[in-house]
Every structure is written in C-alpha cells, then in structure tokens.
Amino acid sequence: MTKIKALIAIAAAFLLSACAEEPLIDPQVSSAMFVQDVVVDTNGFAGVTGRAIDVPPAQVRADVTRALSSRLRGRGNPGGTPVVVTVNVDRVSLVSPGQSLLVGGISTATGTVSIVELASQTSLLAPTQVVGTGDGYAPGGVIGAASRGSPQSDYTQTITRFAETVATELFGPAAASGSSASPAVASPTLSTAPGTNNANSLRESAWQL
C-alpha cells in the first residue's frame, strides 16, 4: 500500500510539474535563429519499455526524426543564424498493463536537446533533458488499463507528444503542429555542454507519418 501511495504521489507531482513549462532557450535567442536541420541520436538507447512492442532503436530514431523535423526544420527567422537541433533519445517508457491495473500512470519519452550554430558550432543550448508525456494520465483499475489502447497507439502518441513538447519549448505553442516549418537541408554532427529541464506534450509518430 505504501508503494502504491508513493507511485500516486510521484504521478501527481509529475502532472503538476508538467503544467509549469518554461522555454528551453531565451526567446531573444530563439527569435534570431533559423533551424537548418534536426539530428536525432539513439546511441545508448536500450529500447521501448513497459509494453509488448518491438521497436528497434533505428525505428525510434526515424520516428523521432520525422516528428521533430516536421515541427522544427525551417522554423525561426529566415534571415537569422542557421542552427542545428540535436536530440539524444534517452528513454521511451510506456505504462505497463500491470501498472495500469494497479495505480495507473503516464507514458513518457525522454530526450536530451542541444542547439549549436551551424557555422561556428557555438552552443546556444547546452544539453538539456526534456520529458514528453503520452496521452494523459490513465487512472488505475480495470477501466484505466482498458483506456490505454494498443501498445502501438500508446507509442505513437508518446513520440508525437515528445516532439510537440520540444517544439513548444523552443518556439512556443504554434510550433507544436508544425504548420509553418518548411523542409531544410543536410545533417551535421554536433557537441555541447550540460543542463536540465522538464516539460510535457506531443501528437503523432512514424507509425502514422
């Protein structure tokens, strides 16, 4: 019972923290940059956990790349500084059937985001952790477990909401839909320095894209 209460408390704290979003980068900096490309890395990613779904790291990389690129590539000030956004996928944790039945929970995707200027490789955003949640909190019990949907739809929602979170935290809510981003160019390799942040949100992955 103590463990169950602790898990409920953690979930509640997570929900509250999700409401307090802050920009990943100073708006004055983001308003002066143009996203030339998005690079996604799954090195060290151990795989999707929590539900019976087999998604190889290469597929996760393709799904996250597609979801992020549609929202970020070509976004920003067309006359601004060209930048590259890099995302290292750390974890994709789906709420397991057992957890759904007992206490409920939220599926999450976690990644580390960094931004560098394309020409100079100057860091504009040190590696910063971002958490995107799936399709809302599922309460415990039989009804909560049933409401989770299929593993594939849970995965899709979680990846999509992660991309929406990153886009929103960089460029505001309008970036979440990807409506004004345009296709961009080639993919360079980057590096930067450390930081942290939490966020939430996202909508559709490569299972549908």
Write a compact overview of the structure shown.
By secondary structure, the protein is α/β, with parallel strands linked by helices.
Structure description:
This protein is α/β, with parallel strands linked by helices and 209 residues long. 34% of the residues lie in helices and 22% in strands. It contains six helices and five strands. It has helices at residues 2-19, 27-30, 57-72, 97-102, 141-146, 151-171, and strands at residues 33-41, 81-93, 108-117, 123-133, 195-196. It has a five-stranded mixed β-sheet. α3 (57-72) links the parallel β1 (33-41) and β2 (81-93). The longest helix is centred in the C-terminal third of the chain and has 21 residues, at 151-171. The radius of gyration is 17 Å and the shape is elongated. The N and C termini lie far apart (42 Å). Residues 1-20 and 182-209 have low confidence and may be disordered.
